[in-house]
Please model this.
Amino acid sequence: MTTLTLIWIVLPFFVGFIIYLLPKGDRYLSLIGSFASALYVIPLFVQQTPINLQLLDNFGVSLIIDPLTGFFILTNALVTAAVIIYCWYSDRTAFFYAQVLILHGSVNAAFICSDFMSLYVALEVIGISTFLLIAYPRSDRSIWIGLRYLFVSNVSMLFYLIGTVLVYKANHSFSFIGLRGAPPEAIALIFLGLFAKGGIFVSGLWLPLTHAESESPVSALMSGVVVKAGVLPMLRCALLIEEIDPIVRLFGVSTALLGVVFAVFEKDTKRLLAFSTVSQMGFILAAPAVGGFYALTHGLVKSSLFLTVSKLPSRNFKELQKQSIPRNIWIILLIASFSISGFPLLSGFGAKVLTLKNVLSWQDIGMNIAAAGTAIAFAKFIFLPHQPAGDLHHAPSKPNFWVAIAILLGGLFVANFVYYEAYTLENVIKPLATIAIGWLAYWLIFRRALVKLPVIFEEFENLIGFMGLTLVLLFWMAVV
Amino acid sequence: MLEAFVLATILCGFLGIVLKKNLIMKIISMDVMSTGVIAYFVVIASRGGVFTPILGDTLRTNYADPVPQAVILTAIVIGFSIQALMLVGVIKLSQNNPTLEINEIEKSDRL
Model:
């Protein structure tokens, strides 16, 4: 299994560079790379035993692969495969596919790292390849969005590095467990870096603009998997060290609420999805032990939504309400929105039940409000006017689009088996009530709400400034 | 003492990123900040002593810790490649935004 793991880690990078040499086979090669990851996780789920690897002596690279990681790796594999299939007939060059695969590999690497230094390297590679994907259209706007992303992530990673060396200073090791003996400033600095990478709380306000303005496949990749590279290390730290657990849970609740407040007032489809990503990251953090399953369902739903909204005639909800959208597109939106709202029969239901069962009593109110808010936000998609596709003068979607969506939504149905125990009467009633409250609130209040939340917090300098404030807040929490 | 100077460098870099209006100046500030972080690794490495840990004729006890120095090498390389990438992006941006003022870029971006 050790050799297999090493081959699996190196494969995406290797194949990624091969694509440069054989640009004709770019799509096939990149698809092979992502399927390899999907196959790799199967023995992991069957055996259920964690693999610990210590490469290169004492101060070398340490890796851990357990079922929690398996969920994240599976998400990564499915989303990458769907994105590649989605782009199959587009005129994107081999460079794009090579970057997608290198991004896939670095995200995998970030998922399995269990020491801070290897994680740093993996996160930086993610930053660079994401920047290249965002800036792929080479327009001024895309370059600016990419630069902004690279800036925020690099500054936060510099803070992270200071934290890393403080951990090393305290116990001569970079491993995650070393955070226990580390001074509070080390915890604050490291978490600041991970917050910015994972789009958590106010440090995550860079995310809406970046995810909304990138091309759809890139948004799907970023929302589906890339942000989770910052979230999984936090889950790991929370599971290893009980002092950190309350901090992670508290930020989980506040992130879920912050994201959902912005999402319900949003008038733009892609920005709504991006804010919802922020809020869903909060759900993952709120119950660290079961975050993996939630991450899987969220990754599948969010990437299918990002790929689908690109097929809508407009990005603005006001304009969408005035015209009809093709019914087949609407059905995809319906399934995905139902899953993310926690409707039974889709795995989003099981994930939400599992998460809400594992939150502590003080988190309960916040998480339920966030769940209702999610239902309100996605009611905007569910109640869009629609009619059969044949009646509309709308270019039919190519078969590769349907294959990509089938992979993602099929995964949602299959993943139901992970937590089939969720299907009890009591468990079914509660999410249905939440959704009913959400839809009622949508029809009575939010459908006509004209509140426009300020975008000033998303300005570049404020993002960096917030980083300083978050640092102070984290430091104070780590001390107390 | 040395540690205080290093931390001051990091702080100066961070303030530069927040306060400077020009994109090039922001990137240079980020470089200052990363220089500070690298220097901090070196300072931490030299807690036990400053001698290079190479086995020689005279045995010493006050060797510098090689681990932080080794890992920061990776960070230096990554930092420099990111800087190069950003400057390329800035070159492209400067064709339509010759001043490279961040407010101007954000304003034209929102239109």
